[in-house]
Design goal:
The chain is mostly helical and 264 residues long. It has a domain of 176 residues. Helix content is 44%, strand content 2%. The longest helix has 54 residues. 9% of the residues are buried.
Length: 264
């Protein structure tokens, strides 16, 4: 089609320009100039500004899309990656340090709540006993086996309760109960249901056992909050003031508030 348009092989596209003639320096030993109207092939040089070399064909390289092809690595790419990795390491260190401080703070607050729970429960037991009560779930403390009435720990262990205390010999209640059940299996069937075992199953109602299981699952801070709220609502006693008020109105007037921050 290009030939039909008048182009010849090796000819560039565009406007045809006059060739630029560059004179060739002659030496003293050269021959005389040629006849007028004729020139030697080496005497002139034609220079054209058009592209004569064919444009290369870029073949299709698959579904790579724009910008997904290989390109030369930038000199600053490795430095950028190193800076990014250093920044990520610094952020990870900051997060780890923050998590450590939060964990240490939670552990400290939990230990402090456990220490305050003992006198609060002691006050609760004293006021309940004055009111004629023989047991309350808020008396239970996993760190104090004496706070559990006889048979309650075994009854809770039979139902898979968590947060149970260890017995006086340092052995877990679940382990001791399992050993007791294995020993009972060696006795005759007539001796299986002893008065002690039947008392264990019937001494505490299902409601009491469920409340005890829920209470023992809580953290020390939550158990402390329940005990203090119970003392304040039932007996008008403020743990932070250390005073039992006559009535609700007197407590509202003289007590700064229900929490520790109000008493600082």
């Amino acid at each position: 089609m290009m030939k039909k348009m008048g182009f010849k092989p090796g000819q560039a596209l565009g406007k045809v320009e006059e060739p630029v003639v560059k004179p060739v320096e002659s030496s003293q030993n050269t021959q005389a100039p040629a006849e007028a109207g004729h020139s030697s092939p080496d005497s002139t040089t034609s220079v054209s500004g058009h592209i004569v070399k064919p444009i290369p064909l870029n073949e299709w390289q698959g579904k790579k899309g724009i910008g997904l092809g290989k390109r030369a690595a930038s000199p600053s790419a490795s430095a950028g990656r190193a800076a990014k990795m250093a920044k990520m390491a610094e952020e990870a260190e900051v997060i780890s340090h923050r998590n450590f401080r939060n964990r240490a703070r939670r552990e400290y607050e939990e230990k402090r709540a456990e220490g305050r729970l003992v006198p609060a429960q002691r006050t609760c037991v004293t006021l309940d006993e004055k009111a004629g009560k023989t047991f309350h779930v808020l008396w239970l403390n996993p760190n104090n086996p004496d706070s559990f009435p006889e048979g309650l720990v075994d009854a809770l262990a039979l139902r898979g309760a968590t947060g149970l205390p260890h017995d006086y010999h340092g052995e877990a209640i679940q382990v001791r109960l399992r050993k007791q059940m294995e020993a009972d299996a060696l006795h005759p069937l007539d001796d299986a249901l002893t008065p002690k075992s039947s008392t264990l199953l019937e001494s505490f109602s299902l409601e009491v056992i469920e409340k005890a299981m829920q209470y023992l699952r809580l953290q020390a801070q939550d158990r402390l909050s329940l005990v203090l709220a119970y003392l304040r609502d039932v007996y008008k006693y403020c743990f932070w003031c250390g005073v039992q008020y006559e009535d609700e109105e007197t407590m509202q007037k003289q007590c700064p508030g229900p929490d520790e921050k109000s008493h600082v």
